[in-house]
Amino acid sequence: AEAMELLAEFTTDEEAPPGIVRRAIEVMDQAGWSKAVDRVFDEAIHVPEAVPLVGRFWVERRLLRGDHTAAERLDDLLGRGEIGTEALLAYLEALGQRQDAVRLLPFVQRYADVLRGDTSAWGKAGWALARVNRFDELVRWMHDWKSRDDAESWMLINLAIALRSLGRDREAADVSRHAREHARKDPTLMFHSVWLAFDEAIAGRTAQAARMSGQHELDKDQLDAYFRMIHAMTKAIIQVQQGGRAAFLDACRQLEQAAQANRDLDPDPAIHRAWKQCVRRIARDAFSIKAWLWKMRVLKHPPLPPFRPSQGS
Fold first, then answer.
1. Considering only CA atoms, which of 52, 65, 68 is closest in space to residue 14?
2. SS3 138
């Protein structure tokens, strides 16, 4: 009872740090008091003085119970201002995390005006569409990226990957160059640079690719498995371009090791297309029967996790 009372006080305290509130929820869940937590937020959502984050926590608690009726309250909550916005974004993020394309697509369409009204919400919608592999829908959704001066790097990397998944590499490169020049710095900014270095290597601009890749090598601990693999492909191309046929076998070995080390990457059509481009470029630069045979083998059986479209996508 005392824990419920304290948690209820948090729901109307504008100065309560969100992290503290979330930690309180976790502690109560761990103590087996999840129903008590649910009760607090089911009551708080009706309180006019409730802080905006109540909307988020209330939606999250409902979805933990597999209850999607929270979506039916969103229109009413949006009429109350920020509490509705938090509820809306929490529901959007949950659909993305769960890769629920069946619910996500009509949801984004229904609340398009609200989501487009704020660049952060616009970017989160793009991220959610990426999570369900709807790259065509994502590109259409983010068509106005050039007009959004406050578009951040993490938003634009989703657009760049979507464009590459659709074979629109030049447009993707434009997005990445824009991000590097204009977006506020965050950990994803390096992802754009990794893609651009790959483009340089594929185009045969070895010196420029090597310069860019050298910087990524120094900072590769900041890359996730997906971009470590793109970086490894770039390095392999550069190795063969610089060393010729004599470097071919070592480059192949390095690629195989990278694929093994990063086998937990989350695949999409973009990285599978990049693999094909990489293999064809290496075989072309090595220019040997052995390279041609290797190309035919690894194109047919790429050492990447298979891409599996999300259900409903």
1. 52
2. helix
